[in-house]
Every structure is written in structure tokens, then in C-alpha cells.
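Posted in: Structural Biology > Protein-Ligand Complexes

Title: Requesting predicted complex, Phenylacetyl coenzyme A in pocket

I'd be grateful if someone could produce the C-alpha cells for the following input. Sequence and ligand are given below.
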Amino acid sequence: MSETEKLEKEFQEKIDSGISIEPKDWMPEMYRKQLTRMMSQHAHSEIVGMLPEGNWITRAPSLRRKVALIAKVQDEAGHGLYIYSSTETLGTSRYELIDLLLKGKAKYSNIFNYPTLNWADIGAIGWLVDGAAIVNQTMLAKTSYGPYARAMIRICKEENFHHKQGYEIMADMMNGTKEQKAMAQDAVNRFWWPSLMMFGPSDKDSPHSAQLLKWKVKKHGNDFLRQRFIDRTVPQAEAIGIKIPDEKLKYNEETRSYEWGDIDWEEFYNVIKGNGQCNKERLQARIDAEENGKWVQDAATAYSEKKKLKKEAA
Ligand code: FAQ
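-- Reply #1 --
Done. Output follows.
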């Protein structure tokens, strides 16, 4: 057995016995590469995900809703920072990762390429998108890479508040006027299927899943988590009178879970290739933020350098 094979065997044994992999531990280059890919996509999703909701801060219908939305959008920025920081422990700086995003060479979640047309969309995002994120991230809180798992624990706690504020918005609207009910239903009609796509392609079409499951980066496949999300969410919809836009949706008494219809995978691949409704707008918003915020970065760098010089001189 070669030295590398021996290291790989020990690495897998560590994973199989549930020991976390930490930044200074030996790891296969492919493990590092796969994690960097997945975590950076996740970090990008958090900061691009601020855009559709940030769009509604000035138009929130009450001060209470506005404060909650500001806090939520700020939380998403924090999540991005935690995940960029944990990705850096694998050896790639956040500047390199963000550069790839701005050049259109990195992915982020499909869901943020849909527009937020009215206030009900903010409720639907909190309820469905954060709901889907929680199902996925609760699993990631037990992932084999220590820094990612620890970031997820805090993130999941915050996502739970986001989910509750989204569901509360939807419940209130479903208790409101005929027009408000129609707006809430319309938002769910538009966000339901893209939310199911957030879990990624079916296991049979997911090129990365098998290896990620072996390394326990993923603890469950994409289909298992999608099903878990559906089983949790449909009763919540029923409780407030929302109809899930799926004619094939049916409870199966035997499996004690829902059967459901077909995802339009063509739409999914089209969106993640950059051809969704808002891909160009989202990327441009990040490019503008980078350019317009450069003076802040420059000032912060100059300040820290000045502080360092002062300390050295003292
Ligand atoms: N969108 O082989 P798989 C949030 C790509 S956070 C775009 O199954 P994998 C919080 C995939 O990258 C939401 N692309 O890949 C929030 C790969 O392409 P590549 C983000 C997708 O990695 C709420 C190809 O398809 N969460 O919402 C998507 O094993 C509200 C083949 O796919 C995370 O990122 C997609 N949905 O599984 C923020 C969680 N799905 O790289 C603001 C961490 C797949 O070969 C407001 N990530 N692709 O070019 C994961 O759990 C996994 O990476 C999956 C994909 C499950 C997303």
C-alpha cells in the first residue's frame, strides 16, 4: 500500500467512526476541492439571497415587519461571512471565491434567480426557502468537516426565526382580505417548485452525491431531504388554507408521506446555467456592491495598516 493509500484509508476510517475532520488534518485533495466548491456555493447563496428580500425593506407594510426583515437580511450577510471564513480554512481566500462569483464562474442557489413581485413573496421566501434551507442545513450541522458543521449550528438557529417570520406573514395574509389571500396563494404558486429544486437534482442525476455521502459531507441524499421538506410543509400549508400547486400531491397512508408530481428539471438546469429571470440582475447587483463598497474596504485596510504601524512603533 502506498503512503497516500494508507493516509486515505485512515482518513476514511476516521470519517466512518464519526470523528470530525479539522483544517490541519490530512485530507484527500478531492475532499478539499469538493468542500470548497460546495461551501463557496453556499456562501454565495447567502449573499445573493439578500437581494430579493432587501428589495422589500423600504416597502415592508409595518414597522414590525420592517425591523424583522432588516434583521433577516443582515443575518444572511452574517451566514455568508461564517461560511466564507470556514471555506478559508481549506486554503482559498474569500477574495478568490468572490472573484469567481463576480466573473460568473461560480454557482449559487437557483432560488434567488426568481423575482420578488410583492410583499407575499417575502412571506413565501421565509416560509418555503428558509424552510428548505433548514432541512438541508440541519443535516449539514453534522457534516464531517468541523468548521462547516459548527457554522451550520448557529446558522440553523437563525434560520428558524426566519422561517417563523415567513410563516407568520403567510398566515396573516391568509387571514386577511380576498386580495391578500390571492397574493399569498400566487406567491406559493411561483415559489413552490423552485423551492423543491433547491435540494438539487435527483440522486440518480447528482454527480457529486455518492462521493459526498461516502465522506459524510452529506448525511442524506437530495431526494430524501426534498421528501422530508414536503412532508413537513404540506400540513403547514393546509393549516392556513394554502393550496400546494401540485395536482399529483397525495398522502400515502402506508409510507406516511406525500406522493407528489414532476419537477421541471429543464427549468432548473436553465436557471443554474445563468438563464433564469434574474441571473443577470443579481450578478450585476453584486458587481455594483463590490465597486461601490471598495472605498470602505480601502479605508478599513488603511486603518488596520496604520494601527499595525503604530503598534510596531510603540
Ligand atoms: N442551485 O451533484 P449535485 C439559503 C448544482 S442557502 C444551484 O446534487 P451537490 C439561505 C451543483 O452545484 C441555499 N445549483 O451537487 C437563505 C452541481 O453543479 P457543479 C443554499 C445547484 O453539491 C434563505 C450540480 O448542480 N444552500 O437558502 C443546486 O452534491 C433565504 C449537480 O448537483 C446550500 O448551498 C441548486 N439548488 O448537491 C439565504 C447548502 N443544486 O458544482 C437568503 C449546501 C445542485 O458541479 C434568503 N449545499 N446544483 O457545477 C448543498 O447541500 C449541496 O451543494 C446541494 C447540491 C444539495 C445544493
